[in-house]
Amino acid sequence: MKPTAPTSLLALWVVGGALMYAAELVLLRVGQPVVLPPITLAVALALLGVIIPVLAWPVRSLTRGKSPTGSVDPFYATRVLLVSKAGSLTASALTGGALGVLVFLLGRAVIAWPQVVVTSLTLAGGIVMLVGSLVAERWCVIPPSDAEESSPAAEGEPA
C-alpha cells in the first residue's frame, strides 16, 4: 500500500472547506439555521488522534526489533494501517470543513464568539487526528531487509 499522498489530503481539505462554506451560505440564504460543529466532535477527533498512534505502537515496536515477542501479526498491522489511512483522509476533509465554517462565522457582521471557539476546537481536533493518523501510518511501514536494500530493483520503490 502506498503512503497517503499530500495532494489527496490537500484536495480533501479544499473540497471539505468549500462545501461547508457553500452549505452555510445556502442555509443562511434560505433562512435555515447554519450548521455548527458540536464540542463532542472536537473531543472525538482529538481522542482518535491519540488512539490511532497507540494502536500502531505495537506494530512499530515489532518492526523495529524492540519487542521480545518476535513477529508482526499481519492482520493486525493491516487493520491499523487501514484505520490510520482512513483517519488521515477523514481528518483532512473534516479539518477543511471546520475551516470553512470558521471562515463563514468570522465573515459575519456580528461574530458569535462561542461558536467560533467551538469551531476552532474542532479544527484543532481535526489537526490532532490528521497528525496522529499520518504518524501511525508511518509507523506501520516495514523497514526494508538487507536483501531488499542491496537489490537495484528495490531502490526508489515505496515500502
Short structural summary:
By secondary structure, the chain is mainly α. The chain is 72% helix and 0% strand.
What does this protein look like?
The chain contains five helices and no strands. The longest helix is centred in the middle third of the chain and has 33 residues, at 74-106. It starts with 5 loop residues before the first helix and ends in a 9-residue tail after the last helix. With 159 residues, it is mostly helical. Helices cover 72% and strands 0% of the residues. The chain has helices at residues 6-29, 39-63, 74-106, 113-139, 146-150. The chain has one domain (6-143).
Shape: elongated
Helix content class: over 70%
Provide a count of the helices. Answer: 5
Find the structural class using helix and strand composition.
Answer: mainly alpha
Number of domains as seen in the coordinates: 1
User: What share of the residues does DSSP label as strand, in percent?
Assistant: under 5%
Mean pLDDT: 88
Unreliable runs: none
Number of E-state strands: 0
Terminal CA distance: 8 Å
Instruction: Give the SSE string.
Output: HHHHH
| Sheet having the most strands | none
